[in-house]
TrEMBL record:
It comes from the Bacteria. Gene3D superfamilies: Listeria-Bacteroides repeat domain (2.60.40.4270), SGNH hydrolase (3.40.50.1110). SUPFAM superfamilies: SGNH hydrolase. GO terms for molecular function: hydrolase activity, acting on ester bonds. This is Uncharacterized protein. One of its GO terms (cellular component) is cell envelope.
Amino acid sequence: MITGEKMKIRKILCGILAGVLICTGNPVISQGKVQAQLQVVRSKTMTVTLEASGGRMVKKASVAGTVTLPSDRNGSDYTFLGWSTKRGQTRNPQYQAYETIKVTRNMHLYPVRYRWSQEPDINVKNLAANLDQYSRIIFVGDSRTVMMGQTLIGQYQNSVSDKVSFICKGRQGLAWMKETAEESLTKALKAAEAEEGATAVVFNLGVNDLIHRRGTEFDYQKKASEYITYMKNLAKQLSGFNCKLFYMSVNPVNTAMKHTRKESEVRGFNEALQKGLGDRYTWIDTYSYLMKFGYTTHNEFRGGLDDGLHYSMKTYKRIYSLVMKNLKKS
C-alpha cells in the first residue's frame, strides 16, 4: 500500500517530469500520460542479439545508441572472424570483434566461422626465384615470422633459402628491433651489396607490443607513435643501401582465445602505422586479406594448439604468397 506521504512525493516527481517534457516540446498534462511517455522512451532501447558459441547473448544499445560487439572463441575446426546478419557465413564478416556499431533497429547477428577444411594448400616454391626485381628478400619479425620461415624452409629448402632470409625471434618487438635486429639487418644489407639488384626488406613487428599485462590499460596509439618515429629514423639510416622497405600489417588475433590482446587495438595500430610511416615504406595489408578470405589457427609447430595468435602452415604460405605479389607490383 502506498502511504499518503509516498503519494505526495510521487505526484511532485511526476509534476516535475511533466514540466521538463513540456519544456522540451512534449506537453504532458496528466500523470498517466507522463507514465505512458516514459514507457515509449523505454521501448525505443534497441538490442543486438548474438548467437555466440556459449549461447545466445543480448546486448542493449548505450544511451548514444551504440553497441560494442564481443569476440567469440574459435572451435575445434573453425576460426571465428566476426559477425554478420547472414546465418552460415564463412568469410568476410560485416562486423569485426570489438567494433562499435550504431544501432537504429533491433539486430540479430550470427558468427562468421572460417572452416579449416576450406583453406587451400598452395605451392609457393618458386615465388621468390621468379621475382626479378630483387636479388634478396629479408623478413624481420617475431614468432609469426619465425614460423613462416620454418614452414617455407621446411617444405622447400634451398628453393626459398637461396634468396630469402629471416631476422626474427619469438616474443619480441620494438626494443629487440633497436637493440639487436637493426645491427643484424645492417650487416645483411652490407653483404647484399655484392649482389646485383636491390634487396626487399619486409618488417612485421608489433603484436608483442600490444599486450595488456595483468589487466592494465594500454595506449596503443602511443605505442604506434613510438614505432613510427623509430621506423622513419631507420629508413634514413638505411637510405645508403640499395633496398626497398615494406611493412606488413599486424595480422589478426582472437581476444577470446588470447585475452592479452584486443582486435580493435590491432586494427587501430595498423591504421596509425599505415598513415604515419609515409612514403618511405610500402604498406602490405595482409590483415584485411586474412579477414576477407579467412585463415586457420591450427598451429602445427605447437602440437595443433590454437592460441588465437599463431597460424597454420597453410596460412603462413598464403601470407608469404601475398607478400610476394606485393613485392612484384612494386
